[in-house]
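Quick review question:
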């Protein structure tokens, strides 16, 4: 069976369009284009929703044209159109969703609204060494840090999450207080290469259970950010020069440690032998190396999304659509809108005849 999907992603500050094909048992990314607005949002220290929507609107016609042309196909070869429906910035999501639904109407194609986190999950299937369910998914991005148990037939159960900042958000906030550019993840990774990850000890952010003890599989990153801030303030009083690389490396190290420890603990406690890492933070080399080493020592296999598909892109949305089509899910209603928030475990409802939003 061969299927080809044209897919759009506009949930945050990247406008992305891709053409993805499922052929001979494999996913093939025929084109995947991304117009990042990071530089523009950078001057504001974070994403400005109104600017994001406007830039999506300006960029999307050009990206569409270029992505279809680069795929070497024309619309007659496309079997379905997909777009991120939720979660994300409402105005930003609308641009991709309306564009996709208009194309679907115009060319008489099925439309699939995709849950952004299901898109991140699907990015792991673009790897040369794709996972096979069941597995434990660690999704660490700018908006989410979640541990999700994925069953053999791709059903989801969230078993751990961050009670405050997402891991990527912590990278962004710490980068900002160190005077590094947005997005913070790549900037911290770069400067950490020349730093000593053992120089400073930052807290691992445990989440207390009101009934006693801690939630063993949950995360908290806001205390860590505050602790880095205190350290920088104290050092400023004592030293002329702040050891940025050592602070960045120590921060990166503790985030990686927490993500590795808690996911492996769940995998071992619940006898899951396969772990999958996706989302922007999964691009981090320190995290990847630590996870490989620790998982190996515990006989857990690890799969990663390819680095280039960890951060937001449309190929992952197309792959999620192809996984849906392959499993016999019917397309979404053309009336499916967008929603800023929606739990992943309800993703099946995006394909109901009467849409949830
Ligand atoms: O998945 P993503 O592109 O967008 C969301 O869905 O949120 O993730 C973006 C986040 C940002 O917070 C960014 O700082 C972080 O992923 N990130 C990284 C790296 N590359 C991106 N964090 C750590 N190391 C990286 N190499
Ligand atoms: Zn994302």
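Suggested answer, residue by residue:
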């Amino acid at each position: 069976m061969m299927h080809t999907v044209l897919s759009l992603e506009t949930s945050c500050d990247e406008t992305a369009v891709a053409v993805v094909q499922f052929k001979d048992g494999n996913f093939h990314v025929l084109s995947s284009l991304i117009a990042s607005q990071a530089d523009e949002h950078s001057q504001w220290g974070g994403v400005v929703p109104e600017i994001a929507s406007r830039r999506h609107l300006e960029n999307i016609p050009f990206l569409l044209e270029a992505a279809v042309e680069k795929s070497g196909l024309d619309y007659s070869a496309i079997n379905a159109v997909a777009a991120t429906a939720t979660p994300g910035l409402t105005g930003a999501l609308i641009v991709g969703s309306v564009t996709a639904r208009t194309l679907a109407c115009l060319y008489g194609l099925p439309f699939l609204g995709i849950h952004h986190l299901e898109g991140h999950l699907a990015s792991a299937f673009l790897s040369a060494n794709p996972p096979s369910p069941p597995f434990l998914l660690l999704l660490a991005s700018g908006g989410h840090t979640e541990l999700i148990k994925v069953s053999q037939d791709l059903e989801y159960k969230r078993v751990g999450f961050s009670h405050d900042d997402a891991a990527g958000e912590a990278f962004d906030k710490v980068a900002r207080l160190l005077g590094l550019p947005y997005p913070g993840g790549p900037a911290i990774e770069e400067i950490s290469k020349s730093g000593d990850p053992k120089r400073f000890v930052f807290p691992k952010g445990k989440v207390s259970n009101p009934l006693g003890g801690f939630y063993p599989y949950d995360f908290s990153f806001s205390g860590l950010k505050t602790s880095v801030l205190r350290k920088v303030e104290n050092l400023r009083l004592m030293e002329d020069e702040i050891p940025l690389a050592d602070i960045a490396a120590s921060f990166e190290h503790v985030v990686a440690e927490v993500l590795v420890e808690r996911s492996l603990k769940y995998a071992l406690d619940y006898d899951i032998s396969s772990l999958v890492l996706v989302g922007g933070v999964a691009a981090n080399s320190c995290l990847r190396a630590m996870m490989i080493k620790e998982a190996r020592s515990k006989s857990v296999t690890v799969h990663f999304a390819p680095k280039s598909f960890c951060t937001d892109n449309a190929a992952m949305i197309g792959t999620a659509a192809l996984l849906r089509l392959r499993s016999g899910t019917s397309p979404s209603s053309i009336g499916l809108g967008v929603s800023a928030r929606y739990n992943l475990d309800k993703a099946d409802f995006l394909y109901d005849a009467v849409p949830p939003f």
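Why it works: The domain at 130-304 is CATH 3.30.420.40 (Nucleotidyltransferase; domain 5). Residues 12, 141-143, 168-169, 171-172, 183-186, 189, 279-281, 283-284, 311-312 surround KG4 (ligand 1) (CB under 6 Å).
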